[in-house]
Design a protein that fits this description.
mainly alpha, flat, about 375 residues, single chain
């Protein structure tokens, strides 16, 4: 948001100098951008971190003095601390101090998790260890939904992901039930119109899909990654045309699809041992994918896609060089061909940028 404010500030000065808007218009636009750009901020971020630290500090103190307390006092203290945190959150929300309210909610979620672990220890409860994290995550999700706390929902997804990773490690197989809480948290993000949460969900699902490819690499896991990435990309492109009101979701999904497909192609080239012909085909497809990301970034003015394409292209080139360094002539021919392709892309980008500027001047 800060970079956007800087850009709009420069544009406003240029538009005012050209006589397109007056001083009153500049002030109105600046005020509107400032009002929409209010986020957590440094005080809020520090408050959230402090709340989490205080929550765990309190529980550490209770744990250190655990043996000196009766069971009734322990349960009363744990329950009191939990509800005190949520009562403080409600008071902050009523006063309009939303960021501090979210910090109090997070403190309550941290205390809730510590409560579960301490009570389990107190009553010597045995069972599947990851289930403790699952209960903690479920309680955090409930608090996030009831109190409409986006930070709590992010924390819930982190806990659900930790639960899924723990179960996957124990079973040495992908834990498919993880998709149920993932879908619930994602729906909560959408319900609360929390766009950063949608990205968090996308990252979590991308990690799940990549884990599937790695676990099943011997039975076509990497090939499946390429297929999944292509399908996600195709559906996203279709969604951009048919449901433009969800453009932000489709644009993000398109990036994740590109990333998954590239990861699959990259693994097929360098984590397996393909024949020379297969390697060249895979390399061309991977480079075409990265160049497609660059093209999309330029055409749609999407910097995320642009940088994803640049990074993917650079990574691909470096690893190709490392794999073909023994054949300098083959490497030189490949890089020369790639150089011509990129030069053509640069010319295309230049023409596209020039045409866009001309259209803006006319309008």
């Amino acid at each position: 948001m800060w970079s956007y404010q800087q850009k709009i500030g420069r544009d406003l000065e240029r538009w005012r100098a050209a006589g397109w808007i007056d001083e009153a218009g500049v002030r109105a636009i600046r005020a509107d951008v400032a009002s929409r750009g209010r986020g957590v901020g440094l005080p809020g971020a520090l408050a959230i971190l402090a709340a989490v630290l205080i929550g765990f500090a309190v529980m550490s103190f209770v744990a250190a003095n655990w043996q000196d307390m009766s069971r009734v006092f322990r349960l009363g203290l744990l329950t009191g601390l939990l509800w005190a945190a949520y009562a403080l959150a409600a008071a902050m929300f009523r006063r309009g101090l939303d960021t501090f309210g979210h910090a109090a909610v997070l403190a309550g979620c941290a205390i809730f998790g510590a409560d579960i672990m301490l009570v389990s220890q107190m009553y010597h409860m045995d069972g599947n260890a990851p289930d403790v994290v699952l209960v903690w995550a479920a309680g955090t999700l409930l608090a996030g939904v009831l109190l409409r706390s986006n930070p709590a929902l992010v924390f819930a997804l982190v806990l659900f992901s930790a639960w899924g990773i723990w179960e996957t490690g124990q079973r040495e197989a992908l834990h498919w039930p993880y998709l149920v809480p993932w879908a619930l948290v994602s729906a909560a993000f959408y319900w609360q119109r929390f766009e950063p949460g949608v990205h968090v969900s996308g990252v979590a699902l991308t990690g799940f899909i990549l884990t599937y490819g790695q676990i099943n690499h011997a039975v076509g896991g990497y090939e499946t990654l390429v297929l999944i990435g292509v399908v996600i990309g195709a559906l996203s492109a279709f969604g951009l045309v048919q449901m433009p009101r969800l453009a932000a979701v489709w644009r993000s999904a398109l990036l994740y699809g590109l990333f998954i497909a590239f990861a699959g192609l990259f693994a097929l080239q360098f984590l397996k041992d393909p024949s020379l012909t297969a390697f060249l085909v895979l390399a061309v497809l991977a480079l075409a994918l990265t160049l497609g990301a660059v093209w999309w970034g330029l055409a749609a003015d999407d910097r995320r896609a642009l940088w994803l394409g640049y990074l993917g292209f650079s990574l691909q080139i470096l690893w190709i060089y490392g794999k073909t360094v023994g054949s300098l002539m083959g490497s030189s021919v490949f890089f020369l061909s790639a150089g011509f392709v990129v030069a053509g892309l640069a010319y295309f980008a230049y023409r596209l940028h020039a045409r866009r500027e001309a259209q803006e001047m006319v309008s």
